[in-house]
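pls design
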């Protein structure tokens, strides 16, 4: 069973990405028969099929900004019993199909569910619902696509899933100054990151291995795709040692 490590990675993503719309800086996912990557306005390559950063700059009124309150029927702040009921409603999940897992370092609790077609034709994914250390309520929902969730998964399928989800999120109306796309990070590319008016976030991360190709172009071969809905990535409800204790 995979360990769900909620916050350090997500906080790192949020703090390492500069504020404002972003395009890729010299990294593209590897795909079979991929067309040459298009250049951004500044001449830097972007992932094939990427939406330009300029498209993210369209202003949006506050009342039209996307609201992130959880995933489907599972809402941030719900207790475990209510989330289990939401999973049954959304995916017809039987009680014995939902697995539990504890995080020994963050002292959070998670429940996991395998879903065959979370994304149409996207292969099986594993959902994780994470409950906070103090609140015991829902603070994050994640989805993972990989060989571990579906033995038939391929790099091409992961890249296709990432493109479909990125295009969807680009049209959802997140805060314009919170949007980042195609941003290389350690071990992958943030395909999309966006927040709502209360700084609740969606993060889409394509993970894999990089290779240096012609013209110093870094090419990513995907191994997994991670999607996170996070209530508070900057100050999460996880265990932390009190200041001055050590």
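designed seq:
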């Amino acid at each position: 069973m995979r360990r769900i490590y909620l916050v350090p990675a997500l906080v790192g993503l949020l703090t390492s990405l500069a504020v404002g719309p972003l395009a890729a800086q010299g990294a593209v996912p590897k795909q079979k028969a991929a067309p040459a990557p298009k250049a951004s306005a500044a001449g830097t390559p972007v992932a094939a099929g990427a939406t330009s950063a300029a498209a993210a700059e369209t202003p949006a009124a506050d009342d039209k900004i996307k609201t992130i309150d959880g995933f489907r029927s599972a809402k941030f702040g719900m207790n475990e019993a209510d989330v289990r009921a939401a999973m049954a409603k959304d995916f017809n999940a039987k009680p014995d199909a939902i697995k539990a897992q504890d995080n020994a370092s963050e002292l959070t609790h998670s429940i996991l569910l395998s879903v065959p077609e979370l994304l149409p034709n996207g292969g099986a994914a594993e959902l994780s619902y994470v409950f906070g250390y103090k609140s015991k309520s829902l603070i994050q929902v994640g989805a993972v696509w990989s060989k571990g969730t579906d033995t038939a998964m391929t790099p091409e399928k992961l890249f296709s899933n990432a493109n479909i989800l990125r295009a969807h999120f680009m049209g959802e109306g997140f805060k314009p100054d919170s949007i980042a796309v195609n941003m290389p990070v350690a071990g992958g590319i943030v395909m999309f990151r966006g927040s709502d008016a209360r700084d609740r976030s969606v993060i889409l991360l394509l993970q894999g291995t990089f290779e240096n190709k012609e013209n110093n172009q870094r090419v990513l071969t995907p191994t997994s795709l991670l999607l996170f809905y996070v209530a508070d990535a900057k100050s999460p409800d996880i265990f932390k040692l009190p200041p001055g204790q050590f």
